[in-house]
Records
---
Amino acid sequence: MAERLTAEARRQALGGIPGWTDIQGRDAIGKTFVFKDFNEAFGFMTRAALVAEKMDHHPEWRNVYKTVEVMLSTHDAGGVTRLDIELATAMNAIAKVTSS
Amino acid sequence: MAERLTAEARRQALGGIPGWTDIQGRDAIGKTFVFKDFNEAFGFMTRAALVAEKMDHHPEWRNVYKTVEVMLSTHDAGGVTRLDIELATAMNAIAKVTSS
C-alpha cells in the first residue's frame, strides 16, 4: 500500500508539478484547470478518468463548463501518497496537450 | 432564450423527474446519483456530457468515485428553466440504463 509522504517529500514532489498546492484544512493536494470550453474540459476529464481507472486511484473533482477543480488524496493512507503525485503529474501532461 | 419557470411550473416539472429537488440557497435543482463504481459513474457523466454539449447547456457537477452530484441552473435566466428540466430528464434516463 502507498504510504503518506513526509512533509519534505511532499514539498519536493509539489515543486515538480506546477499549479498543484496543498488544500487548506484537508490532507490533500489540489489544482484548478481552466480550459477554452466544455469540450476541452471534458476531454481532459475523460483522458484523466482512463488513467485514474487504470491506476485504481480516483480523483475528487468538480466541473463547471470550462473549469475543472481537482482534489487528490489517498483515503486508505489518510493523506497524500505517491499515487496522488503520479495522478497529478499525469493530469498536468494531459492538460498540456488538451489545451488549444 | 429560455425563461425562468414559475414556482408552479417548476413544482410540476420536479414531480416528473424522480430524485431532483430544489437546492437550498440557490435558484437551482440538484440530484446525487450513486452508481456501482467509477466505471459506471464516469460512463454516466460521459453520456450526459454529450447531451449537455448538444443542448449547449452544461451542468455543474462533482464526482467522487461512484457518486455524481449534479446541480442545474440557467445562468442567462438567473434560475431554473425548461433547459434544466430537459437535461435533468435526460440524466435520469441515462442513469437508468447505466446502472447495472
---
Amino acid sequence: MRSDYCGVLRSADIDRVVTLCGWVDRRRDHGGVIFIDLRDREGIVQVVFDPDAAEHFEMADRVRSEYVLKLTGRIRARAPEAVNPNMVTGEVEVYGTALEILNTAETVPFQLDEHTDVGEDIRLKYRYLDLRRNEMQNNLYFRSKLTTAIRNYLDEHGFLDIETPILTRATPEGARDYLVPSRTHEGKFFALPQSPQLFKQLLMVSGFDRYYQIAKCFRDEDLRADRQPEFTQIDIETSFLDEEEIMAITEGMVRKLFKELKGIELGEFPRMTHYQAMLRYGSDKPDLRIPLEMVEIKDLVSEVEFKVFSGPANDPNGRVAAIKVPGGCSKLTRKQLDDYGKFVGIYGARGLAYIKVNDRSDLEGGLQSPIVKHLPLDVRAAILDRLQAKDGDVIFFGADKAKIVTEALGALRCKLGEDLDLYTCEWAPLWVVAFPMFEENDDGSLTALHHPFTAPSCSPEELQKNPLEALSRAYDMVLNGTELGGGSARIHDQAMQQAVFRILGIEEAEQREKFGFLLDALKYGAPPHGGLAFGLDRLVMLMTGSSSIRDVIAFPKTQSAACVMTDAPGTVDTKQLRELSIRLRQKEEKIS
Amino acid sequence: MRSDYCGVLRSADIDRVVTLCGWVDRRRDHGGVIFIDLRDREGIVQVVFDPDAAEHFEMADRVRSEYVLKLTGRIRARAPEAVNPNMVTGEVEVYGTALEILNTAETVPFQLDEHTDVGEDIRLKYRYLDLRRNEMQNNLYFRSKLTTAIRNYLDEHGFLDIETPILTRATPEGARDYLVPSRTHEGKFFALPQSPQLFKQLLMVSGFDRYYQIAKCFRDEDLRADRQPEFTQIDIETSFLDEEEIMAITEGMVRKLFKELKGIELGEFPRMTHYQAMLRYGSDKPDLRIPLEMVEIKDLVSEVEFKVFSGPANDPNGRVAAIKVPGGCSKLTRKQLDDYGKFVGIYGARGLAYIKVNDRSDLEGGLQSPIVKHLPLDVRAAILDRLQAKDGDVIFFGADKAKIVTEALGALRCKLGEDLDLYTCEWAPLWVVAFPMFEENDDGSLTALHHPFTAPSCSPEELQKNPLEALSRAYDMVLNGTELGGGSARIHDQAMQQAVFRILGIEEAEQREKFGFLLDALKYGAPPHGGLAFGLDRLVMLMTGSSSIRDVIAFPKTQSAACVMTDAPGTVDTKQLRELSIRLRQKEEKIS
C-alpha cells in the first residue's frame, strides 16, 4: 500500500514520488494551503496540499487529527526559511497529489504528545491511543530491539531457547502464587510460575548445557511502583561453568547491549562482597554513582560519656558510623538537615546527628553541631581525621543497632546523592558477591537469602554446623542502585540439597511432596550448573530512562492489579465456576 | 571447565589435548581396557582408559552409565578396523589421562535410547531423563533453531516483538478459558488468553505497523492427540498491507525456514478457494501429496432407478461423488474394501459403493461391484468416462447429504493415501482462501467460521442482507493436510464490526460490555490491518517428523491436562483459597 515510511524521508529522496500511509498528527491551513503532518512508526513528514489540485485539496480540507490517510506526492526541498531543524525530515516536504481517507477519527480524549497531562488511569483506559505517543513508541521499539540483541548474543554463545510451562505447580520463591483451578482434576489448582527456576535446572540435568528463555513470571503481591503482577525475565542457565564464567558471559551481554543500543562503554564491572556493600554503602545494591561512603567510628566513641554514641559503640549488635558530604555547609540548608532527621526516622533511627565543619582548625568554635559539645576535643579531632574532613564539609552520624544504622545511612546516602546531584558518572555497574546463605528471622528460624537451590561455598557438614556463617555462590548484578539480575551456582548434589532443606525447617515428608522430582533428578547424574535471571522490564526502564515500569510494558496493570482498558479481572458466570468445582465465598462466611 | 564439546571432535583434532564434560552413555571393559562413550549436547565420543594410567584407570573402572564426568585426554585416530562409520566422531577417540567424577548416578528407570519402550507416563514422570534421549534433544534443539530463524526473518522484515498480557479478560475464540481468581478484586477472575488477537489489533491502532510475538496461548479443552492446554503461537499482525502482501511475507517465512533448516525448496504455494477444497478434496485443509480427487457425478445418476444414487442426486442438499484409485484392483483386498465401508461410517455414510474395473471394454462382465447391476450400461460408461477409469482401477462412491459425502470421501481419500502410500511428494503446501464468513448452526443461528474480527469481502449492507453468501478475507496456510496457520484482513471499521456482532446475535449491551474497548479503538483512527497466527508446536512436529505434539515440548501435559513430573495441578490450602474469596464446591452441592 505504501512505498516508504514517513519518518525516513530525507533530502536524498527529493523528486521521488512516494505513497505514504499514516495518521494526521496535525493539520493546519496557512495562506490557503493545507499542511498535514503525517505520522507513522518511523516519524513525521510534512505534506502540502494546495488549491491547484482541487479534488484532493477539498478532501485534505476535510481531514482532522488522527484520521488515517493514504497519500501520494512528490518529495521536494522546503524553502530555506521553512526548513525545520527540529524534525529529522525537516528539510523536505511532500507535495501531495492524491489522497485517500482510510479511516476517520473522533476527537481523541487527550493530547497525544509529551504535553499529555491526564492521569495515568485515562492513559491506561485508552492505552491504544497512549501508545501512539512518541515516548511510548520509542520505549516499545527500544524494548523490541533490546530483546532481539539479547537473543542474538545468547544465540551466538550457544544458548538454546526452550519454553517452560505457565500452568505448573506452586514454586518456592516465597511470594504469593496466582492459582488456576483445574477442571479435569477436581479441587486442584495449577500455579503460574514465579520463575522457571526448577524447570531450568531440570533442563541442565537433561544435558541441554545452555538454556535461555525470555520468560513471563507471576507474583500476586501488593504492587510497588516498579512491580507488576506479570513481569518478564531473561532467564539463563548453564552447565559445567563456574561462577566466574557465568558472570563473564552475562556481564559481556549487558556490556554489549549498552554498547550496541546506547553507544555506551560500561567497562569491566567491579566486584564487591555483600559484607563490604552493606558496610560501606548500607545496601546490597549500592549506587556507585554517588561518591559518599559510610565510615566506621565505633572505636573512636566507645569511651565518650555521650550515651547516644557510646551505648551502640559498646553493644556487639550496635554500630556507629558517619558519612561526609564534601562542601555540604554551603549546599544544605537548616531545613534540609531537619528533613533528613525525619527521613532516617523511616528506617528506625531516632535522630540524625551532624557536624558542620566551618573551620576544622578550631575544634571548639569551628564545628557547628547539636552534639559536638558531648564529645571531647581529641575525639572530635579523631573523627575529622578519619573522615578526612575539610572546611565546609558536613558529617552525618548514625548510632544505633547495626541494622538501623546501616539502612538509615544507606538510604540517606542515596537521598543526598539525588538531592545534591552528586553523581560522578551516568552508569555505575558492579557485581555483589559472597552473600550469606541464610538470614535469621525474628523467631530464630532461617530463610534462604536467595533461594533454597543456591549452592553454598562450603561442605554440607560445615553448612549444618554454622549455617549463619556460610556464604553462598550467588552473585547479583547491580546498576545505579538497582538490582538488574541475580543468580548463583546451584546445588547439584542430593545430600547438600537435603541439608539446605533441613536447615530451612523443611522436613523429609515435605521435601518429598514439594521437591521430590528435583531430589530424584539430582540422583540420576545432575551436572554442576548455575545461572542467572535479569528483570527485563527493569532493564528497559533503566536504559530508556523511564520513571515507571508501566511505561515500558504495552498493556500493564494498575497498582491494584487490574486492566482498566479491558476491565480485567471480570465477573464469571456460575456455570463456569461449577465446571471448575469452585464457588465464590460468601461475605458472611468470611466474617465467621 | 571444558575445552570442547564431545560431539564435534573430528580427525582434524588429532593430537589436541582436550577437556570434556558429559555423561557416560556406555562404559565397557574390553581386553583390560575401559571404553567410555561420553555424551554431551553435541554428541558422543569414545574415550579410552588403559591400565598404564593406573590412578585414573581405577576411577574409570568405577564409573557407571549416566555418571557425570570431567576428563582430559589426547585425541588420536582409531585403528582402521575400529573406525565407526555410524558415529560422526567415529574416526577418532580420546586417550584419557585425567578423570574426575562430577556426580554419580543411580540406575535410570528406563533405557535412554531409541529402544525405549516404556509407557509415555513413565517418560513424562522422569522427563528430565527422557529429554536426554537423542530424539528429544534433537527436537528441542531444532525448535530453538526454528524460533531463532523465525525471529531473524521477522526482525529483518521490520516486525517488532511486543509482549501482550497473560492475565487478561476472557477472549471470544470460543473455547473454554482458564481462569485465575483475583485476590485484590473480590469475586472476579482473569482469563488466560486463547490468543493475543485483540491486543495485536490494538497495537495496530497504536501505529506499531508490524508486530510479532511467539506467544503462549491457553485453551481448557478436552485434549486430542495434537492439542495441549498451553500451546505456542507465532503471532503476526501488520497495518496497511492487504491479504496478498501478508500472505507473501508469511509464505516467504515458511519457505525460508524449510530452506534454511531442512534444505528443502517448497516453491510457490498454490491457492485454492475453500469451495474448491471442499468440492475436490472434502477438506478445508487438503493434503495435496495425495493425487486422488473427488469427482461430481450427480448429473449422471439423477435418472437411475437405484434410489441410493438417484435420491441424493435429486436432493438440493444431496451429493453424489466418486474417487478413483488407479491400479486399486491389485492393491486393495476384499477385506480392505469392507473396512473402508466401516471407516466411512464414522462420518455418517451408510455404506461405500465401489466398482472394480477389471475390463472396462466389457461393461457387463468387466465391472466387479455390488451396485453396478443397478446402473444402466450408458450410465456405467458415462461414469467410467468422467473418471477416466482404466483397467485395474477401483472407483468408490459417496451418495448422501452433501456434508456426509464430502466428509466421508475426504477422509477416505486421506486414508487411501496413507494405506497405499500414494504420496507424490514429501511436502505439499497451499493457501486456502475465500472462506465463508459464517456457518449455520442447527438452530439457524450463525457462527463466525474464523472469528468475529475477520473482514468480509463485501459491504456491511450486503453482509447483513445475505450473511451465508458472504466470503471473508481470511486465508489458511495448509501443509500436508495440516493447518499450519490462519489469518485474515481484520475489520477496521466500527459499523462493520457492529454489523458482524449483530449477525452473530451479540446485542448492543453485550457488545459494549465485552468489546467496548475494541469498538472505541475503531473510532479513533484504526488503520486497515490484518495478520496471521501459526501453531509453532505443530510446525515443529511436522518439520521434525514427530508423531506427538508432546515430543516437541520440553514439559508437556498429559491428555488429562496434568504434569506427572511435578504433580500439577496440586492441592491448595484453605487459607490461600480464602484470600482469593473462593471455596471448593462440595460434592453434594454439585449433585443438587
---
Amino acid sequence: MLGAFIALIVTFVPLGANALWPIPRSLQTGTTLLKLASSFDIKISVTNPPQDLVDAVSRTKGFIQNDKLQRLVVGRGANDSAALGSAPTLPGLTISLLNNNAPRAIATEAVQAIGTRSEGYSLTVPTDGTSAILTANSTLGLFRGLTTFEQLWYDSAGVTYSYQAPVKIVNDIPAFPYRGFMLDTARNFFPVADIKRTLDAMSWVKINTFHWHIVDSQSFPLDVPGFPEIASKGAYSSTEIYSPANIQDIVSYAAARGVDVMMEIDTPGHTAIIANSHPEHIACNQASPWTDFANEPPAGQLRLASAATTNFTASLISAIAQALPSKLFSTGGDELNTNCYAKDSQTQADLKSSGKTLEQALSTFTQATHKSLTDLGKTPVVWEEMVLEHTVTLPKDTVVMVWISSQHAASVASKNFRIVHAPSNYFYLDCGAGEWLGNDPTGNSWCDPFKTWQKSYTFDPFAGLSTAQRSLVLGGQQLLWAEQSSPENIDSIVWPRAASSAEIFWTGATLPDGTARNVGSALPRLHDIRYRMVRRGVRAIALQPHWCALRPGVCDLRA
Amino acid sequence: MLGAFIALIVTFVPLGANALWPIPRSLQTGTTLLKLASSFDIKISVTNPPQDLVDAVSRTKGFIQNDKLQRLVVGRGANDSAALGSAPTLPGLTISLLNNNAPRAIATEAVQAIGTRSEGYSLTVPTDGTSAILTANSTLGLFRGLTTFEQLWYDSAGVTYSYQAPVKIVNDIPAFPYRGFMLDTARNFFPVADIKRTLDAMSWVKINTFHWHIVDSQSFPLDVPGFPEIASKGAYSSTEIYSPANIQDIVSYAAARGVDVMMEIDTPGHTAIIANSHPEHIACNQASPWTDFANEPPAGQLRLASAATTNFTASLISAIAQALPSKLFSTGGDELNTNCYAKDSQTQADLKSSGKTLEQALSTFTQATHKSLTDLGKTPVVWEEMVLEHTVTLPKDTVVMVWISSQHAASVASKNFRIVHAPSNYFYLDCGAGEWLGNDPTGNSWCDPFKTWQKSYTFDPFAGLSTAQRSLVLGGQQLLWAEQSSPENIDSIVWPRAASSAEIFWTGATLPDGTARNVGSALPRLHDIRYRMVRRGVRAIALQPHWCALRPGVCDLRA
C-alpha cells in the first residue's frame, strides 16, 4: 500500500525561481548574478506621490538593506562571491503609474469595494546596467510590485544581489480579489503590536484582507463609541481593550500596507459577554450545562426576537461599522443554538406576541443588522449557516464564508451567493493542538488533525463548482481561533502556514511555467519567505531541518 | 458511545491550592491572606553560603517583586484588596541547612550521581507575624524550596500577597530522581540564550536534567577540543557552533539552577555529517534513496566494524565527556540501519577480516565507547534498541531510554536495566505538527497526534512493571526533536506542556490530599505556572480562553 502510494509521487524538479511568494502569475527569470549598486535608490516617478507610497518605498529600501538573507543553498551563496566582482550592477528602481490620474493613497485604493481594486503590476529587472522598472495602474499595484522586488535580494559577504536576473514580470494580477487572514482576539487578547506585526507579514505575501473576529462570548475588547459599558464590563481588563484610537491606528496601518480590515461582530450567537453590561439583551447567559446551550462555554445569545435587542444590535453594529473604511463587515451568524431560545421565557413571549417563528424572527433581526450596514454603503458578510441552515432574507450581494466543510461551498454557490473559502478542514490554523476543554484526558481538537501547509496548499477553490459558479468565488483565507493561542504563539502558529492560501488565491492553480501548483516546487520558495520573515522579526517556524532547507528536493519523501 | 464516555468523567473539585507546580508531595494550606512586608527579605542562615545559593536567593526576590501575577479568578483578586489592609504580614524568609556540614554549591549538588542527590526541603509560611522558614539537607534542596516559595505570591493593586496561608510543607522530596527535558540542537540550531531561557523554565518546575541531543546527521554544532574540524565542516555556519566556552557557560548556568546536563553523542547512527570532515569513518554518506539507508535524511553511519573508527569515536566521546561534570552521558544507539553496513564494502571487509558478525562488531564498538565513559567515572545512557534489538554487552548500571513505545518499558525492565521514560506516544513534543519530509501533500507526522499536556499527564511510570521492577524507573522526560522547531517556537511548543512530566516525576501518582493526580485539578495550577512563565519572559502558550482560566472547572467538557 505504501509502495503504491509512493509510486504516485512525481519527482521534484525545481523551478528557476527559488524565491518569490506568492509566485507571480507571469514570470521570466534568468541565471545572471546582479548586484545592487552602492548608490542604489528607488525613484518614485509619480507626481505628488501619496505619503504612504513614499513610506512603502522607504520600507522596501530598508528590507533590501537589512534582510541580509543568504541564499538557501549549500554554502549559502559563498560561491557567488567571486563572480559578483564582475557581475552587472543595478543602479536603481523606478516606479511609475501607467495613467495620468492623480495618484490616490495606497490606503485609499486598499479599501475599495472587493473586486474593484487594481492590484496588478509589471516589473523588469535588467542586467544591462539600466534601472529596474515597476509600473502599475495604482499605488496599490506599485505596492504589490515592491513586495515582489524585495524578495529578489540576497546577501553574500556584504554584497546585495539577485541570482536570477534578468527578471521580467508582465501584469501580475491576483487570481482572486479576496486573500485574507482571520484572527480571533476574543478568546485570548492580542496587543496592537502583535496585530501590526501580523499585518506586516500578511502584506509581505500580498494578503489583502484582515478579517478581525474582534469579540465573542468570552470577551468584548472593543470600546464602541456610545457603548463604552460593553467593553468596560466585558473586556478581560482595562488594558485589554481596543480603543477607537487603536482601531484607527490598526486600520490605517493595514490600509497603508494594502490590507482592508473587515471586522466581524458575530451575532446573534457568540455574544454572552454582552450580558455583563446588558443582561436584558442576552438569553441563557452562562446557562449550565453549557453543552445544552452553546458550542463552547460560556452560553449566551442575543435575544433576537426582542425589538429592543434588535435595535440595540443594529445601533451597535452601525456605531462600529461607520468608523471603518472597509466596504465589508461581518455580522457572523454561526452556531445559533435554538435550545437556548426555546428555554428563554422572554424570547418565547416575544415570539408569541409577534406571531413569528424563531426563523422568522432571525430573519427580521438579520435584516435589521444588515440594514445598518447597507445604510452605510457596506456589504454584509455572514458565516455559511445563514444560507445553509436558516431561512433568512439576505441582500443579494452578501458574502458567505464557508467554514464547516469545504464541501459546503457548492451548496452556497447553488444559492448564488459569493463565497470566501474558510474551510476548517483546510484552513483552520488552530486544529490539531489538542482539547482545550477541561477534564478531558484523552481529547483532541474537534477539527483534528493539524492542517499542514501542504494540506492547505492543495485546496482547490473551484472544487465542486460548475464553470458558471466559479465567478462566485471571491477568494479565501486561513484563520486563527484563539482558544489555545495568545501573543506567545501567534507568529509560530500562523507563519509560514498562512502563506499557503496567500499563494493559492494570488497565483491560482497554475505556476508561471504553465504547470500545476504543487507542494514540491512550493517548499523551497516557502522556506525562502519563512527565513525572510525571521530576518524581519516575525517568528515563523522552521518547516524542515536547516540541512534540508539548503537542499531542495533531497529530503523529499522519495528523494 | 459519547454518553457512556462522558458518564465516566468525574466532576472536578478544586483543591485548596490553586498554585504550585509541581505540587508538593506534602502540603497543607489555609485560606488566610498574607502580605509581604515592605521590608521583606530572605535571610540566608548558612555559614559561608556558596555564591550560587546567594544568587538563587536574589533571583527569588526578583521574581517575587516582578512577577506581579494577579490571581486567576474573576476580578483578578481585586476583591482581596480591602481585606489585605488588615491582613497579617510576612516579615521575611529564613533559609537554613539541617546539618552542620560545610555547604556545597548548588552546582556541585546538582551533578552528583543520579539517585544520590538531596533535593527535598521543608517550608512553613506562618500568619503569626513571624518569618517563613525553609530548611533542607543541601543547598540543592534549598533551591527547590525557593522555587516553591516563589509560586505562592500574587499582586493586587501593588500589594504582594498569598491567599492560601498558612502554608506547611514537610519534607517535599521528589518521587523520582530523574526529571528531564531533551532538546535536539542538530536538526535546527538554538542559540545559547534560548537554551538558558529553557533551563530557567525547567528549573521553575524542578526539572533536574537537560538531555542535550547536541549533534545528529544534519549538523554537528559542537566544537570538540582536539577535533575542531568536525564542527568547522559540520556546523550549519561558523556562528552556529557551541564553543567550549559556550558549553561551560551552559553547564554552569544549568547546575546553578539544579539542572544536570546530560549530553548525547548519538552513535553509530545519526552521524552522517561527520563525513564532511572524516569521510573515512562514515558508511553510506548521503546514500540515495535515503529511505533505504536511514530513518530520515541524510543517511550516514559510523563504520562500527572499523578499529580506526571505533578508536576515533571513543576518543571523540572522551574528549567531550571529560569537560562535563555530569555522571551520565548518552552514546545514543537508536535506529541503526543494517542495510547501510551491508552495502558498505569497507564494513564488509572489516567484518570479514575480524570474523565478527555485525552484532558482534556493534558490541565491540559500544564497549569501546562505553569504556571511554567508565574510564571517566561516568555511566552510559542508551536508547532502547541497544537492549531490545541488539545483543550488545552493556555495563550493568547503563541507563536505558524508552522512546519507541511506553509499552517497551516492561521489556527493558525484564532485562534489569534502569529506565528513563521518554516514550514517543506520551512525551514527544514534536508529534502532530505535520509531515516535514518534502513532496508529501497529505502526510502527517509519524507520531500523530499531537501529545496534549493531558495525554502526557496521564502517563503511568509503573505501567506494566512488577512491584520489584519499580525501583528500576529513574524517571522520565518530554522531548523536542527539532525537525520543525527552531528558536521561533521553542517556548511555545515546549511550555507549558513539558511541565506535565515535571509533576509526574516529582509528585508521583498521588496528590498531597491522598487522591490520584488528575487533569481536572491540574489544569488551574498549570494555568498558574503558565501565566507566571509568561510574566518571566518565557512564551508559554495559552491552554484555554482567558475566560476559562479565570473560572476553574467552568469550561470542563462536562461542567
---
Amino acid sequence: MDEFPGALGTSASLALRLGQAIFAVASLLFMCLDIQFYSYTAFCFLVTIMGLVIPWSLTLAMADAFSVFVKRPTRQPGLLSIIITGDWVLSFLSLAASSSTASVSDLLMTSNVSFCTAKSCTRYQLSAAMAFLSCFLSLASSLINLWLLPTA
Amino acid sequence: MDEFPGALGTSASLALRLGQAIFAVASLLFMCLDIQFYSYTAFCFLVTIMGLVIPWSLTLAMADAFSVFVKRPTRQPGLLSIIITGDWVLSFLSLAASSSTASVSDLLMTSNVSFCTAKSCTRYQLSAAMAFLSCFLSLASSLINLWLLPTA
C-alpha cells in the first residue's frame, strides 16, 4: 500500500498540498488586496484560517517533495495521526470560514443598501469559492490518509 | 468492544441521537416561529439542513432504542459505513449552515441599518448556537462509529 496515490509522501499528495496552498493564497489575495475586509467578522475569520492553512500545507508539501525527490522516510503511525487530525480540523475550520464568507457576501450583494461595489462583492465571492476548493482538497488529504492509517 | 459507549445500539448512542434531534428541533423553532427567515439564503439553508438532520437522527434513535430495550441486532459493517457517511455529511452540512447563520446574524446585528429587531436577532443567534451543538453531537456520533468500524 506504500504507493497508494495521495498517501503521505507520494506525488499525488504533493499535488494536493500544492493545490491547497495555491487556493488558500488565492482566497487570501482576493480578500485582502484593496478591500477593507476587517469591517466584517466573517471575513476576518476567513483571513485567519487561510493564514493557518498556508503554512500547514506548505510544510507538508515540502515533506512530500523531500519524500518524492530525495528519499522515502519511514512512515510512522503517530505522525500520520497528527497529520490526519490537523487536516481534518483545518478543513472543518475552512469550511466554516468559507460558508460564512459566502453567505455574508451573498447578503451584502442582494441587500437593498449597497454595502459593496459590484467589483468588491465579486471578489468576496471568488475568495469564498477559493476557500471552498482549499477546504475540499484538505478534506481529500485527510480522508486518504485516514484510509491508509490502519495499514501504516 | 460491543459495549463501547456511543457505538450504534448503546444507550449513549441513543442519548447522542436524541440530543441531535432536540437541538435541531430547537434551532428550527427559533428560526421559523414568527420570523420571515426566507428572505435570507443562509437561513433557508439552515432550515433545509435541520429538516434533514431531524428525521435522520430520529430514525437512528429509534434503531438504538430498539437495540437497547428489546434485543440487540447483529451489527453489519456495511450498514455502519452508511451511518458513518451520513453522519459525517450531515455534520459537515450543518456546520456550514450554522456558521453561515451565525455570521449573517452577526452582520445583521452590527450593521448600522437595522435589519432586525433586537429580539429577532437574538433568536437568529440562538438558532445558530443550537445548530452548532447539533453539528458537534453528530460529529461525535460519526467519530465514535468510525473508531469502531475496524472491529465491527
